[in-house]
Amino acid sequence: MSLSGYPHFTLAEAAPGVYAALAGDTGACIGNAAIIDLGDRTLVFDTFQTVVAAADLRRAALALTGRSAALSVISHWHSDHTGGAQVFDDAPILATARTCELIAGEDPGDLDAYTAEIDAWLDRMRLLRDTAKTGHQRARAENNLKVAGLLKDEAPGFRFTVPAPLDGDGMTFEGSERTVEVVSYGGGHTESDLFAHVPDADLVVAGDLLWVRNHPRVDDGDPVAWAEILERIDGLGVRSVIPGHGGIGGKADLDYLAGYLRTMADLVDDALTAGLDTEALGAIPAPGGSEDWDGTARFYGSLTSLTGLGSG
Ligand SMILES: [Zn+2]
Q1: What is the CA(208)–ligand 1 centre distance, in A?
Q2: DSSP run (H or E) holding 14
Q3: Which of 3, 37, 137, 237 is the most buried (most CB within 10 A)?
Q4: How remote is the CA of residue 130 from the centroid of ligand 1, in Å?
Q5: How far apart are CA 261 and CA 224, in angstroms?
Q6: Rg of the chain on CA atoms, in Å
Q7: For 258-295, what is each residue's pLDDT tens digit?
């Protein structure tokens, strides 16, 4: 059983039979995914951005567990977690009812419209690359250009895939060797986020509710509600967490991000009270301890969006 041979992601066994598929830098994956062996069936958590990465994830599930996915779950609507879903559509793909609606709302309708969306993204990112004022902006543009280029290449075979709704806010899947609870505590990172709890391993697969050493994207979310969700997850007695972005983390990462998000909420309130403009926002330092994290542009993007100073 090999963990190597997958160019777009790194596989790591976070607990016996629980594998993190951690996004690499080829552009095919942005967020992470996971594979959970329940003993007599296999659950896949999130499906990457691209079909090529999702096909590798399917291959990895088969190699590691001897089975393809009996079930896939989607943590939230962002395309870096759902884009490859078509690869798993021979079995149920589930998400919260609200996430299903949000994904359905992204349906480009047809291939021409989808290709036009990608072309528009490529144009925006070429412009950003060519006019970038900072190395961070240029790096973000170049990374997005890799992703968009891959999506354009595979567009002719792309099938927009909407998950089916879970029953209520959570479902329990019992396998022959373990039980996995798929749970939503509501919305924090987006309007609706779900995670998988693997009680026998004291492990959570968090989707984008946890980012490790990466500034989180908060522009579609609510930092205080998000912090409260992290505190509830912490209350489950978790030892390890597979995050949506970054490497495998643990309780300290949950605690830290909850504090970071509360700090962000305070910064937003203070900025609104002081009537700061975009330039002044850009001078606010990131929360202490996150200075060397990846994705500083996301910190400022989140501040700009939450204060209503962004152009959208
Ligand atoms: Zn996300």
Answers
A1: 5
A2: strand 9-15
A3: 37
A4: 26
A5: 7
A6: 19
A7: 999 999 999 999 999 999 998 899 999 999 999 999 98
